[in-house]
């Protein structure tokens, strides 16, 4: 029995997002093993930058394979490290590989997905990141408790992270290349066959497949005639720069929600209120379960609720959580009181914050950049936005320890303010992209007003989804007429 096309697309998306497990796992392990975080995120910054042009040149699948190979080299160096320098080199290489993967995977997912489930499939990036963090939390807790006074306490967690990369790299070529990449590189027949494989169980005469093929071809023809393939296009074309600015602002805003500060320095933050390291690891493992449930919630509902309002609401909830946590630490300073209620209040706020972030901001930071660019600029635009993410990730990783030591809870003021300004910014400037075909993004970001908050969305809706259905209907009717004519003769 043939797999329904949307189920097949979802399964391809699940497999591709195995690369995100690597990043999530590292986020879950890195604080526990106490390694300098900037080596990894610095490598990821470089990887995301290289993946942009490589993704355009070699295709999405080859870029994924290259990322896996680099990550495995880094993982091997870390696991077998003889001294700290081996470990640092391994951290940087592993980060380089992860940079390739987390940049290219949501882009690949967006390009293979039906518009009605594109958000669900690209949100898998954050869900699998959560799977990685979940596994890492319990592995780290187990090795911390069970492998004391042994290098296995850190070698085992670092070695396990290589397993998903082996499977992803070994099997990625069993799955289809992006049909848009194929068509953009002069291979329309393969593009049509891939569209059919994704949307109609291989039937190249399916009306919807033919209609989407025609719409993509029309869009690519326009792009080839009016746009260049260079990075300059992203900065000189008004519509392209608008999208680049929004994508970079989104990725920067995600780090300024405070998520990296909590992930990297959880032991220190919990220690502020008198919670021991072993108990912290247990609470973080529970926190990872909460995050996983929230990410699953986003996967299920992102294509129903959209992108714009969940992102705005999530930032406001994050703000409230940081505000309450800040008040608790200010009123009940660590060491001067042993108020159990205050400690539990802080823990619950971090859990609630994690649910809010994981259900909204986290997944949407991958969903939105992957879908707003056109085919000619998508790989480069997502690459730059992902570099911004890792740059801010590195920044927060560098300053959090010093800030927590010197100003304590006052450091949280930064995240209270930024979550609020994030919500205001996206309310004013981010248009809704739910259910829009990728080929409509050019029209949307060319014609939608900069201040979208005060305008009716219908005024800048080009109706590409309706056009797609109309084209499919015309092809279907034409086929019926031709079939009837043949039957008469």
How are the SSEs ordered, and which strands pair?
Layout: H1 5-16, H2 18-33, H3 37-58, H4 60-79, H5 84-112, H6 118-122, H7 124-146, H8 152-160, H9 162-171, H10 179-184, H11 188-199, H12 207-226, H13 232-236, H14 238-255, H15 259-264, H16 266-272, H17 277-305, H18 308-331, H19 340-359, H20 361-372, H21 378-406, H22 412-429, H23 441-447, H24 464-488
Helix pairs in contact: 1-5, 2-5, 2-7, 2-9, 3-4, 3-5, 3-21, 4-5, 4-8, 4-9, 5-20, 5-21, 7-8, 7-17, 11-12, 12-24, 14-20, 14-21, 16-17, 17-19, 18-19, 18-22, 20-21
Describe this structure in words.
- The chain is 79% helix and 0% strand.
- By secondary structure, it is mostly helical.
- The chain has helices spanning 5-16, 18-33, 37-58, 60-79, 84-112, 118-122, 124-146, 152-160, 162-171, 179-184, 188-199, 207-226, 232-236, 238-255, 259-264, 266-272, 277-305, 308-331, 340-359, 361-372, 378-406, 412-429, 441-447, 464-488.
- The two termini are 35 Å apart.
- It contains 24 helices and no strands.
